[in-house]
Amino acid sequence: MSASEKIKARAEQVVGRSVRKAAHALGNRTTEAKGGALEARGKAREAKEKGKDAFKR
After folding, report:
1. Strands in the chain per DSSP E
2. How far, in Å, CA of 51 to CA of 57, rounded?
3. What is the pLDDT of residue 44?
């Protein structure tokens, strides 16, 4: 997993989780869903990179 892609994946997860939790606390369901989607995209990016690493070995 390249370092820049790893950082992007982790950043998307952290930002998404923060947005989701803040929106949940404020009761904003639309923004909460967007934060959850961002977090899921970060997890998917991380899984993609781990898969690429598995094929390299």
Report:
1. none
2. 10
3. 95
What does the H/E/C string look like for 30-48?
HHHHHHHHHHHHHHHHHHH
Alpha carbons 2 and 24: distance in angstroms, whole number? 33
Angle at 45 between CA 17 and CA 8, to 5 degrees: 65
Q: Torsion over CA of 45, 43, 56 and 4, rounded to 10 degrees?
A: 60
- What values do phi and psi take at 27, rounded to 5? 80, 20
pLDDT in tens, 11-42: 999 999 999 999 999 999 999 999 999 999 99
Q: What is the pTM for the complete model shown? A: 0.84
Contact between 35 and 23 (Cβ < 8 Å): yes
